[in-house]
Amino acid sequence: MHPAVLPLALCTLGVITGQLGASFELLVEPAVLVVEHGASVRLKLKTTCQDPKAYSNVETSILKRLVTTRPGETVVELLNVTAWKSSILCYHVCNQNRMTVPTNLIAYRVPELVELESIPPLAVGTSHELACSVSSVAPIRNLTVILWRGSEVLHTETFEQHSQDEPAAVRVTHRLTAQRQDNGQNITCQALLNLAPYGPRFNTTSEPQPLTVYEFPEDPKLEPHIYLETGEMVNASCTVGRVFPTAQFKLALANHTLPFSTSQDGHQATAEVSHSQPGNFGLVCTVTVGPVERQKEATVHVYRFPLPQLNVSTTSPAAGTAVTVGCILPRDHSDELRLQIRAGHRVLAGWGPSPLLFNLMMQEEDDGMELSCDAKLPIGGKTPKTSTPIRLTVTAGPRMDDGSCPPSQNWTEGQDETLHCSAQGNPSPSLECTKNGEPFPSGVPQPVTRAHAGTYQCRATNPLGTAVRNVTVWVHYHDPDVVLLVLLPAVVVAALIAGGVGYRIYYHKKKIREYQLQKRQRQLEMEQRRTVGCSEETAALNGSAQEAQP
């Protein structure tokens, strides 16, 4: 049973006893006495007894004094309470009947000190045990310890299972895994001594400790070897990966601090590095992230790197001839430098030492080819240097083939047709086409007649020569169908004649049928007349015979 419920049950029991005995009630206020250790506390006894000789008091080992007494109410004060827990027996005598009600007394002590153990700087992802110590407190079962991160509860611990009444010190721990968002958050420890509903509620909080969280899992990255030409200025970048909070950089070349710029995301510092003398020099990058500092070193190699020179035997070769291409470096160049010869993006001669030579056979389609020579340092990833390019002009005489000037072309009478013929060459040749000595434009649509059929001669000319090509044009046409023009009237006449003859035959047959019908009707009439005459004659003969009989 909960301690707070027990006194109420006992009070109720007292009431029942009174009803069974002398029919009066005894009430104790408060139901549970809560007092700070070493302090005093008052309790009030109330009764419904009407006996003027009735009286109330308490039985306890604690020093007490009677404060007030009047009919139906008595106030008793317990002085200098040092017992951590005690049962007070309250009683009332009414009409020589004694009623008792036991009441619990709880002494408490507020913790004087709530302290967090020191929290070191934490790397992101690191697990750390937070520890909070609470000094002597009683009763411990009424204590609640809460660990806070800012306004967020990290851990709550209660001690309801503890039955001791004497003061005790407690240590509460919670394991925290550091995250970026924890940086700068205050960790506090709160100790709550809650004596409600019969006593006060005390709140004691530790001094806050801010969290220092950082993330610096890898060393800075710096190109270990940097190559540059004397007097040249290059960018050297020192980079960090996933870091928190923002990294602080410092770059120094040969113990001289360099100015630098930082990238927008704060992960890279870039400084301009240069030196007027050849040699090897140390470059140091120092990065500070939170409480951690790390360094990375590199070597700057300074050398001489002249521009390559490109030469060709001629810049205007004829198609089918060879051109000699050469690339060289000045005498004071570094021996590690290598050369290559290119035509646009196509490599003609791969990387090799100076001088580098190459023979190139020219084709007509190579006109406009741009030659260049690159020089590079095989180590250090240095950007190659390129010579001034040389553009070749490849010359070629006029040329026509089946693709550009088809030898046979088909046209249709009445349509617009084009004489297809063009010529290649450099310089571009002029083209003239004729038929029977008369000029005829090529590439221009013309209305076609039968007279356009025949052979055309096309002549292409440029300063290097002339090319001639014959083109045969076939014209397709359609004449009117004479047979059809003759047969069509004949068919119409024949159809008319056939219709007239048919009608004539039909009319003739109709007349014959009418004649035969009339003839048949006359025959029937004559037969009828003969039949009537025969009947009369027979009757006459029969009558004569009768008369001759006796």
Describe the protein's topology.
Elements: H1 5-20, E1 26-29, E2 32-36, E3 41-47, E4 55-59, E5 64-70, E6 73-78, E7 85-94, E8 97-108, E9 114-116, E10 122-123, E11 127-137, E12 143-149, E13 152-158, E14 168-177, E15 186-194, E16 201-205, E17 209-210, E18 213-214, E19 221-222, E20 225-229, E21 233-239, E22 248-253, E23 256-258, E24 260-262, E25 268-274, E26 279-289, E27 292-303, E28 309-312, E29 322-328, E30 338-343, E31 346-352, E32 356-361, E33 370-376, E34 385-386, E35 390-391, E36 396-399, E37 408-412, E38 416-417, E39 424-426, E40 430-435, E41 438-440, E42 446-447, E43 454-462, E44 465-476, H2 482-547
Parallel strand pairs: 2-8, 10-18, 20-27, 37-44
Antiparallel strand pairs: 1-3, 3-6, 4-7, 5-6, 7-8, 9-11, 11-14, 12-13, 12-15, 15-16, 15-17, 19-21, 21-25, 22-23, 22-26, 24-25, 26-27, 28-29, 29-32, 30-31, 30-33, 33-34, 33-35, 36-39, 38-42, 40-41, 40-43, 43-44
Q: What features would you describe in this structure?
A:
- The chain has 550 residues and is mainly beta.
- The protein is built from 2 helices and 44 strands.
- Strands 12, 13, 15, 16 and 17 form a 5-stranded antiparallel beta sheet that branches.
- Strand 33 and strand 34 form a beta hairpin.
- The protein starts with a helix and ends with a helix.
- The N terminus and C terminus are likely disordered.
As residue ranges, the low-confidence spans are: 1-22, 532-550
Extended strand count: 44
The rough form would be described as flat
pLDDT averaged residue by residue? 86
Q: Tell me what portion of residues adopts beta-strand conformation.
A: over 45%
Q: Which structural class is indicated by helix and strand composition?
A: mainly beta
Percentage of residues assigned to helices: 10-25%
Largest sheet geometry: 5 strands, antiparallel
Radius of gyration: 65 Å
**Measured distance between first and last alpha carbons:** 172 Å
Task: Quickly count the helices.
Answer: 2
